[in-house]
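Bug #77: duplicate submission created two jobs. Keeping one. Sequence:
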Amino acid sequence: MDGRLRRARSERGTPYAGAESEFRTDLERIRFAQAFSRLAEVTQVIPAAATAGVVHNRLSHSIKVTAVARAVAVRLLRTADRDLLRELGGLDHVVVQAAANAHDLGHPPFGHLGERVLDHLLRDRFGLPDGFEGNAQTFRILTELEVLGPGDDGLNLTAATRAAVLKYPWGRFQVPDPHPSSWPEAPRGAGFASTGPGSGKFSAYTLDLDEMSAALSAFPNLPAGRQTLECAIMDLADDIAYSLHDLEDFHRSGVLQFSPVSGEFRSWVTERRALAAMSDDELRGMGRWPGAGLEQLRRRLFDKDAWMFDEDTFADAVETMGDEFVDGVLAAPYDGSMMADRAISGFTSRWIDHFIASVDLQSDPPIRSAYVALSPESWHQVSVLKFVHQYFILDRPDLAMYQRGQARTIGRLVVDFDDWLSDRLDAPKAPRRLIDLVRVATEGYERVAATHAEWLAGSTSPAKLARMGRGRGIADFVSNLTDQQAVAFVHRLGGARDLLWSGGAL
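Kept job's structure:
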């Protein structure tokens, strides 16, 4: 029997009668969790009401990531070297599905925008050095915040499933030691954050580092800083789905226009040598002149991922996506016809199949890669597709204006809840779940102070621990709201005349 399965069962006991495995139980616990249902009303890029088209939310995205992840896992189980699979810790397609279902649970209202706002407020207002990170919040939800039954913390998942959501298996500052941010070459995401010291991406807050270490201990042969096989597949499937389905949304919504995208691709292809000869300052001075965006992408890939980047393969990827997506899909405006749907859905399904077929197992990957990776050709193609999404959708001024309002909503919630809990007379009337979460977080920091005081860098006074616990508890509460709940709470806290008695407890 697989050693990590024995370890998982020793933690959880006998599976329910009729269950296929402990891992199947994990999968169903995640699917039945309130945090999973909530994803139906959390923004992927824009909310459904912002466009006439149908767009993905976090739930539909997670379902599609799960489908891609399962296909990749099943393919590897059929084709990869079984001895190598065992040597690298084993592979179970149900664990892969569980991780894919869970991977976005930690996203707050309004997606990555809400994540950035919460990170800033937690660090500056509450003195929480590790701030907020969506991946770390996912792990916290699974292991601490979700309620399964009396006496349980989190969903009580196997070590394999807990480890499979650790995309960045380190804390922001501590664990492992030495910390990956100090390595001669840092893993992807482990480099210093643009917002301050410590890794930009990480999978466990200081409160949850012991839990992370316990999950990873089920994989004694896994080197520090490495994802498990199941985690690597989930991460890769997320990239594949994200690179295609969001483009599909914005084509159907009429946001992606043929002319500017075509101009960008054609200009880079015809002027690539002249663009390459420019200095970085000259290139920045071009602004959004056609071709400049793809040239900036080329330079970023070369600087960050020289182990994989190849000039000719990148040029081939630009030309291929120019032919397949720009000329093959965008050239005909989406008009709601069956023919238009066939064009975009055919492109998406064809390229998902292509990317799945290009996935391979690596025994000794570069530090910025993983045990499961795309072929060099597909890696460049995915990078180009993600560029289209970033450059022509996420960087739009109208979307930025919309998001500034969403950021203000998150900020007001955090400040208003902090003020409410500071009111000695009125604090007991705050939402019951908020009070619970602040208590749980405060007790967590007190536990860390008693067992790993060095992780708190001297911030161990009762007042400081209470302040940190309040900040973390408020973030736990706010990040678990849907988009509409966040807006409604701001209106109520602002005194707006709205529905008061909704029939549900707070």
